[in-house]
Amino acid sequence: MDTIPFLFVQLPNYRTRSDVPEESDWAELREAQTAALNLPDVGMAVTIDVGEADDVHPRNKYPVGQRLAAIAMTDVYGKNDPTAHSPALAAVSTSSDGVVTVELEYANGLHTTDGSPPKGFALAGEDGTFVWAEAEIADNAVRVWSPAIPDPVEIRYAWGWNPETNIVNAGDKPMAPFRATLGEHVPPRGLAPDAALATTGGLV
Length: 204
Fold this sequence. Notes:
Number of strands: 12
Strand content: 15-25%
Radius of gyration: 16 Å
Structural class: alpha+beta
Number of helices: 3
Distance between the termini: 35 Å
Oligomer: single chain
Strand order of the largest sheet: 3-4-9-8
Shape: globular
Order of helices and strands: EHEHEEEEEEEEEEH
């Protein structure tokens, strides 16, 4: 082995939940952490669902340890577990009726934890104003739309300090936060945002 495996925990949800889509330094830091996956032998446990509004160090450490262990067993020790990683953005496309299809990797058994439609998606048009969007699961993908945004330009998921989320795979791993510009190439998972802008324009 030429490198030592390095596993880390992405920033959890924190602070009071916003009723409207928001800008967030915390979300940008999560995006920067995701970029580290571009390095060899690096794994990241998503914890967007186990944080606490009033404590930057959440008390519930058990699922965090479980998720790190699942990644280690799969990536380091070769266990065959298709749900070890959190569902993550693979590609986005838009149909003529303004419906955005979010294709995911590690999405085996994709479902919501509460049986309700997927939460946490926001769309924006040319003016850059985000609104909450409706969504539905379709196999290993999610279809997202909003009557208020007939021609979506940007999409975000779980973008904010403490976003409301409910999408997991069969291993109960929460879907990873992301943002993307529609109609442009989405770079490979883990590509640094600045590099993405320089080479493809895929992430914003």
